[in-house]
Amino acid sequence: MRPLNPDAIAPPFGRYSHGVEIAPGQRVVRTSGQLALAQDGSVPNGARAQADLCFDNIRHIIAEAGMTPQDVVHVSGYVTDRDYFPDYMAARDAFLEDVDLLPSSTLLIVSGFTRPEFLVEVEVWAAAP
């Protein structure tokens, strides 16, 4: 993976890269959007707790392919209110805390998800040999 942050544009204003080049021959994993649904069917309260659970679920999914957050090349986050940005970004940054080459990232405000109690959804792309 090679981060793409050209000097000709403003630097990223968060913990991400503007673009990521994936080397030829890499295996690629794309997760479905993960909602904050615990294994027992419960949904935590609050955007930070939900985002943390989304990233925890993603960690388990990519581990099935022998990958870790170090292999994530793109993160897409969706929140239902602008006020949830800081909580989502804190959870994303915690997920990427030990990552050396930062993935690209997108964050969108959406009108809602399949159930009204969901505040956050996250999906990722990962690549590894």
Automatic annotation (TrEMBL):
Could you name the domain of life of the organism this protein comes from?
A: Bacteria
Q: Name one Pfam family in it.
A: Ribonuc_L-PSP
Q: Which InterPro entries match?
A: RutC-like_sf, YjgF/YER057c/UK114
Gene3D superfamilies named in the record: RutC-like (3.30.1330.40)
The protein's name: Enamine deaminase RidA (YjgF/YER057c/UK114 family)
User: Which source organism?
Assistant: Shimia abyssi
